[in-house]
Amino acid sequence: MLTGLGSIIGSGWLFGAVVILAIALTYAELGAMFLESGGMVRYARYSHGALVGFIAYGRTGLRSFRRFLSKRKRPSST
């Protein structure tokens, strides 16, 4: 079993947790700075401009929607 601290660090879990924590803190800071609704859609627009922000968020949303559709269980045709 991989239960030691060395295996946790070596497997990338600790690095991933640090990255996710940094992203969460960044979104918390942006949310405190810009007191508007919209979240991720607005942040992309503020940081990259209207066109690039729209394309970047639209591409991410489309990718996650396609992933959702591919993971859905389809009824069997028996």
Question: What does this molecule look like?
Answer:
- It is a single chain.
- With 78 residues, the protein is mainly alpha-helical.
- The protein has two domains: 8-35; 38-71.
- 74% of the residues lie in helices and 0% in strands.
- It contains four helices and no strands.
- Helix 3 (40-48) packs antiparallel against helix 4 (50-71).
- It is flat, with a radius of gyration of 19 Å.
- The chain starts with a helix and ends in a 7-residue tail after the last helix.
- The model has no long low-confidence stretch (mean pLDDT 76).
In terms of topology, how is this protein built?
Elements: H1 5-10, H2 13-33, H3 40-48, H4 50-71
Question: What is the subunit arrangement here?
Answer: single chain
Count of DSSP helices?
Answer: 4
| Portion of residues within helices | over 70%
Q: Give the SSE order as H and E letters.
A: HHHH
Q: What global shape is seen?
A: flat
